[in-house]
Amino acid sequence: MATQRTTRRPDPAVPDLRLRLDIGYDGTEFAGWARQPGERTVQAELSTALSAILHVDGQLYAACAGRTDAGVHARGQVAHVDVPFDKWHAVAKKVPFRLRGTLPPDIRVTAVREAEPGFDARYSALSRRYSYTLCDSTTGPDPLARMWAVRHPNTLDVDRMNAAVPQLLGLHDFAAFCKQTDGRTSIRTLLDANWSRNGEIVTLSITADAFCHSMVRSLVGGFLPVGDGRREPEWMGEVLHAGERHNAANVAPAQGLVLEEVVYPPADQFLARQAITRAIRQL
User: What PANTHER family does this protein map onto (predicted)?
Assistant: First the structure.
């Protein structure tokens, strides 16, 4: 269980420096990214490790590009952390090595560096790309793949699932495929989605400017009855435009989902991108 500590309050007398961290993790044993009382989370583990390495009183706050749910994995998560300038430069060259030794084996910081001016891991991002992996073998997934490949009992037709994609692309209100959160919009721009097969493994690669809560897993739940023939491809568009969750489109299990990549604009466009991201989306 992650140690709970008070969040650090910046000292106005000591200037802060923003760091960018590229992160991967196996989400199996985590209750998600965000800190939760009494739960083991990626944010808590990372913040605790950084606070100890930099000898900071209180808890540093790591803000991420995509707040993954319990059981969801990441290869390409990005976060930023504001740290005291003097604490960072005292140990900067040693931080990557010390993170490897301090973090548990199911989290790895693959890169840590000083962020360019205006960088914000969440609001500067242009897009996020996720993958979702299924196995439709009658015997189930390889035992070594069971933590990231979700078994589906029926054979899936990737051509049928890909035929459902075009009606979802572009700017839409994805309320039918999101867990609603008070005060937050479900309007998103879906940039790309593609299903592919490699033997018994079926994988979705999906990219959007951002995703609302459970959006990818809900879309997967909608694609499945199309892929196994229970619904026609046009049905996905009907659900989308109805604007209400459908009981045939269940939220797929968390273990198949991986945050693969976060894309950012050139540094001189960070602030302009933040203004767009923070604006209320409208159709």
Answer: PSEUDOURIDYLATE SYNTHASE (PTHR11142), TRNA PSEUDOURIDINE SYNTHASE-LIKE 1 (PTHR11142:SF0)
The residues, ordered by sequence, that sit 6+ positions from 22 with a Cβ below 8 Å of its Cβ are: 76, 77, 78, 109, 110, 111, 112
What's the DSSP call for residue 65?
A: S
pTM: 0.92
Q: What is the pLDDT of residues 107-157, one digit of tens each?
A: 999 999 999 999 999 999 999 999 999 999 988 888 988 889 999 999 999
Contacts of 266 (CB under 8 A, 6+ apart): none
CA nearest to 22, candidates 125, 91, 94, 101: 125
What CATH number is associated with residue 233? 3.30.70.660
Say how many C-beta atoms besides its own lie within 10 A of residue 153's C-beta.
Answer: 8
Tell me whether residue 273 is in a domain: no
Active-site annotation, residues: 69
* Same domain, yes or no: 231 and 135: yes
